[in-house]
Amino acid sequence: MKVAIATIGRRAAACLVLLLALVLPPASAEQRIDPAADQRAFQAYFRQAFPSVALNDFANGPYAVDKDMRKQWEEIMQFPPYDFALEDGKKLFETPFKNGKTYADCFPQKGIGIRQNYPYFDRQTGEVVTLDLAINRCREQNGETPLPYQVGDMAAIDAYMASTSRGKPFAIALPADPRAFAAYEKGKKFFYERRGQLNFSCASCHVQAAGKRLRGDILAPALGILASFPIYRSDWGSMGTVDRRFISCNDQVRSVAFKPEDELYRDLEYFLSYMSNGVAIAGPGTRP
Amino acid sequence: MKPEKIMVRLALVLLVGATALAGAASAQAATQSEFEAAYRAATEAEQKASALRNQWTPTEAALEAAAKAAAAKDYGTAMDLARRAEALAEASVEQAKEQDKLWQNAVLK
Questions:
Q1: Count of CB atoms within 10 A of residue A119's CB?
Q2: Helix, strand or coil for residue B56?
């Protein structure tokens, strides 16, 4: 009799556990994902790997971690190669659209000193909005055709807007919205997962091999890596946006790149920028 | 060397040569329909990679080169390239499936 009662008790307990598992809601995305902890670990890793590099100096990529390259960069910066783009960008930014409005009408603070807040998560549309996407949406809202994303006028406008934010630390917000957490997590996954025939992830170069040589290049640490964008890259011989960099990285590891401003690229930019919160904007920048 | 041994060795050499020739002939003799089947299989594998958002550039290059060789009626080369594309596409699908979980091991903690 006692055995039977014990068996019934155990079965009842098991049923109760099963019932609770069915009734209680699963842990939400926000509960499972801890971006603040990710950010602490991310920044601690690079601060430990490069103890002599000041937080804001991470924005300067390879020039922050290699003495010889820094000397070359200091020489280059006497006549920064992005200056022409900066000048063009200011003109483009201030030139009214056909309807008389300007870019300033589309942005908070008239578009001045706001780069550090991009990308942001738009709770209305449920997606990540980068500065370049916002620039093109502004154009479309005002009856203009969107600009190509990787080079040219887009890079120039981007350069001017970034220059008005120099010294302002990245302040990427992550609202308490499961969709924002999902976008963050997708960006994080993209950063760490290996892809392409060469089986490289973003982290393979910019975490595990940061500061080391890859043929003639010194690999930039991932911390602060987007704070100098857009960049004039000597290898390109022209300016390029974040999209251009993501696409060329994918191509280098023999992975078919996505279209500029693809959702995955925007999520990746969101994750990387959030990881760099606190690093001051230094764009536009230069790279070898 | 004994004549029997010489005969055995000669037979082996002939066998290897004949096999190689047969292989080359089969590649040359690949027909349009055989190529089309190989190309279809490669394209299907590449579509799976695309659905996983993990295509490789060499796969695309091999598919393009295969189509070009077929257009020039060089079905032997075209079939080799299509088979290569299929193998690459399958590897990219495998990579995507593996990385779906493995990426978490690389996260800084």
A1: 28
A2: strand
Would you kindly state where each structural domain of chain A is located, as residue ranges? Answer: 33-81+171-287, 83-163
Q: Is the pLDDT of residue B105 over 70?
A: yes
Q: Contact, A115 vs A281, CB < 8 A? A: yes
Residues of B with CB under 8 A from a CB of A: 53-58, 60, 88, 91-92, 95-96, 99-100, 102-104, 106-109
For testing contact with chain A, the best of B60, B90, B107 (most A CBs within 10 A): B107
Please write the tens of the pLDDT for every residue from B47-83.
999 999 999 999 999 999 999 999 999 999 999 999 9
- C-alpha to C-alpha distance for B100 and A26, rounded to whole angstroms: 21
Strand pairing report for A285-287 and A231-233: parallel
CATH number for the A83-163 domain, one of 1.10.760.10, 1.20.1270.50, 3.40.50.720, 3.40.50.300? 1.10.760.10
Q: Which residues of B touch A251 (CB under 8 A)?
A: 57
Provide the residue ranges of all domains of chain B, joining segments of one domain with +: 1-29, 31-103
What architecture is the A33-81+171-287 domain classified under in CATH? Orthogonal Bundle (1.10)
CB contact under 8 A, B58 and A255: no
Cα separation, A95 vs A106, in Å, equals 14
> How far A212 CA lies from chain B's nearest CA (Å)?
18
pLDDT for A22 = 46
Q: Which residues of A are catalytic?
A: 249
Mean pLDDT of chain A: 92
ipTM value of the model?
Answer: 0.86
Residue pLDDT, tens place only, A77-134: 999 999 999 999 999 999 999 999 999 999 999 999 999 999 999 999 999 999 999 9
Closest Cβ–Cβ partner in B57, B88, B109 for A251: B57
